[in-house]
Amino acid sequence: MTVPARSNLLAQAHTRRRFLAGLGLAAGAGLLGPAAISRASSLAAGSSYDPVDPAADTGLILVSIQLGGGMDALGTVVPSGPGYSALRPGPGPEADLHRIDSDFSLNSMPYLAAQFEAGRLAVVHGVGDPKASLSHFDATDMWEKGSLDFGTTSGWLGRSLSRLVNDPDPLLGVSVGPLSPTMRAPGWSPYAFSDPYDLPWTGDFNEDAAGLAAALSADPSPVAGTDLASRVRASQALVRDVGTRLCPVIDRYESHGDDEDDLEAIGMDLGLVAEFINAGLPTRAFHVGMDGFDTHSGQDYDLPYLLRSLDTGIGRFYDALGPNAGRVVVMTWTEFGRRPEWNGQGTEHGTAGTQFVVGPRVAGGHHGTPSPLDRFDDDGNFLVTTDFRDYLGGVIQGTLGVEAAAILEPVPSPLELVR
Amino acid sequence: MEVPATPANAAHLLRRSAWGGLPFEIDQVVADGIEATVDRLLDVSVAPVPTEPDYGPGAVPFEGEVVNLWFYKLAATSPTPALERLMWFWHGHFACDYLKSEAPDLLLRQLITLRRHALGRFDDLLAVVTHDPAMNVYLDLHTSVVGQPNENYARELMELFSLGANQGYTQADVAEVGRCFTGYDLVGDERTGRPIGTTVQPGLHDFGDKAVFGRHGNFDADDVIAMIVERPQCHRFVAQRMWYRYAGTVPASDVVRDLVQAFAERLEIRDLLGAMLTHPAFYADDVQAGLVSAPVPTLVRAARAFELTFPDDVGDFDDERATGRLLPEFGYRMGQVVGEPPNVGGWPHNDTWLDARHATGRLVTGRDLGWLVVEQEGPVAADLIAASGSPGDFVALVFGRFGVVQWSDQSADQIRMALVADRDPIVATAAAIATAFVTPEVTLT
């Protein structure tokens, strides 16, 4: 039906939305204090890291990208044929479709389309759980835990990483932004950070905050208590212990951070991940988040924009990795797909979603069965054809070499996603 | 029986219901008692009417940073801190951002609306939030029309704002409530052209029969709100959420029962908050043992502790004597920006703030806060610098300013260590303030 005319207030909101947080707030560092004008002068001095020789280490590195809000499967991997046309008016004027085979096109993702062609992109269809919630929060919780048991407190990545070695290094798993619940594991505090210009115990921090550094460094090794006060101290000790090891990352970032100005937040975050990998840190899994996929309205404009940002970010990321690219696998996950029918402006919360796995070692092609376009569940949603644990299990086993059955219940039948 | 007004209880009340308290304010609570203090805190007859920045004609009058400075100035200087603290609670509860709308002015007005209704009836609050233009855009109400209803607001209204996930409603109810909320449109101000309200356009609204919670009728938004607030799930949910954010724990069933009893009949938020702040369980060990303070309340506490100053015009970030101008930047670095919740669920809670990302934010902010305070003109900095030669006095002085009445030997030792790390008393004082800021005593509330 035609949407009746309405007022034009806030029209600019639909021309181009900003996805970067921190409107008008400058990337801050050393606002005050004696070293503010001479930052970067002492970078990397005395760093104590031990670079890993990429050639000597065959362990794959996993980059998990959370597509928050619930990415529309049908609008992203667009089916050819009348089944799709019966449900949707089309991907909209902003979409730029890249045909990958006789059945599907990718919306506004030229890099991923080329990777599909080259056999390095797995498109995983119909992923979810029939009992999953339509709530963002419950569905996200399920994905983060890799379980429908809400009593679980750990995440699927945290459980996997903490099985790799005894007493895991905090840098074994890194979240860009707040700690992802996917990384949680009993007895392990993985690293998380936001801004490479703003890390204590790097650069000018020791000069600007010598007294603070002295006071905290003199703290006897924090008691591994579970009370909050002990955990406050432990969190600061974690940052202190990791800080100096990150100097090479910041050094690299500063050397060519400026040419990433045209990237959206996801591209910049992936650029940081590349710096971590290229600096030879021992990280085996990264979490990166991207929001905005909750396209109840404005989907015609927003979804192509989001997918283009994601696609560009992943492409630039692999370029930046250079010789390390062969070690890195990128996977996406979104809490649910969206409903089959169009609401006039976008789509509502649904069930089965489409996920991507990309990289030189990925078993490219279609995995799982696409949900039928003419047969739905009791709520009118797409049928789940791939258990989300089979998807996660395939990623865990293929990249980290941890047996999926040790991480996920009930015992999954992991997809063969990595060669 | 009334909760005894010990210094510890008094400080706890001020830290949780307001933004902490200076020593004389804690003494006042000890003298007056808990119940009289709660009555005073919730008496908003002296509350100032917040001033809005001048919008003028133009597309987007100001950026999010201005909303943040406006918020910090009001929260740090108002004589009714419990009211602004409650406004902050509602901002997290009815989480909404200015990024999707690109309209920080609408978000600022929404905060004023939340403050105006903060202590009133919950059904009124639900109604003004529903009709609010910033919320309308954030949850897509203004694009939802008859025949093509949008479920976004309907779902979050029940799941996050009023009933709780799966508390007595179904997916079918979500779809039907979506129909009840169709037809919203924004109303603009004639002078500035900016949206100032909403209206329901009859041609866009679904006037058909709908089935909500098993009842049938030609329901609209107000009908749905009326049906929601009479449900016991709603009373329990609001009481639980308020307890969870203020007390930090999951409330015991008898506590929920007491709170619901105070709230359910009249739906007055003042009654609910008053019952919570005077409840003996609010002062129990598990509650006092700690709640990790989110960045924004931590920064307002610091602003009050060190009497940071603000520019007359909250759009002015260039006045270097206005030390509070840096609070928006500090909030950004600590990971919490007013008007930028991570999603409609609001901000995370308690120990989520203890991860490495937020520990990093606290440390770099503590460093800069220390320098900011010692460079500030006036007696606060002078007194601290003067005390830096006597570490014992300094520890009591700095913790006193943060509203801390009991502290650990370990934290006191660390502050002393920072004081002796440099011979220059100004440098030493900056380091000791930074160290105090990151102690568990100040990180927890």
Relevant terms:
heterodimer; A: 419 residues; alpha/beta; 9-stranded mixed beta sheet; 3-stranded antiparallel beta sheet; 29% helix; globular; disordered N terminus; B: 445 residues; mainly alpha; two-stranded antiparallel ribbon; 23 helices; 4 strands; 54% helix
Write the layout of secondary structure elements.
The complex is a heterodimer of chains A (419) and B (445).
Chain A (H helix, E strand, L loop, with lengths): L60 E7 L5 H4 E3 L2 H6 L9 E3 L4 E4 L2 H8 L3 E8 L7 H10 L10 H6 L11 E4 L14 E3 L11 H4 L1 H8 L10 H16 L3 H10 L8 H14 L6 E6 L8 H23 L6 E6 L19 E6 L6 E3 L18 E2 H13 L19
Parallel strand pairs in A: 1-8, 1-9, 5-11, 5-12, 6-7, 6-8
Antiparallel strand pairs in A: 2-4, 3-4, 5-10, 9-10
Chain B lengths: L6 H11 L5 H10 L1 H8 L22 H14 L3 H13 L10 H14 L4 H10 L1 H6 L13 H11 L8 H10 L3 E5 L6 E6 L9 E3 L2 E3 L3 H9 L2 H15 L6 H11 L5 H9 L7 H4 L6 H11 L21 H8 L21 H19 L4 H9 L3 H11 L7 H11 L5 H13 L2 H4 L2
Antiparallel strand pairs in B: 1-2, 3-4
Helix pairs in contact in B: 1-2, 2-3, 4-6, 4-16, 5-6, 6-7, 7-11, 9-10, 12-13, 13-14, 16-17, 18-22, 20-21, 21-22
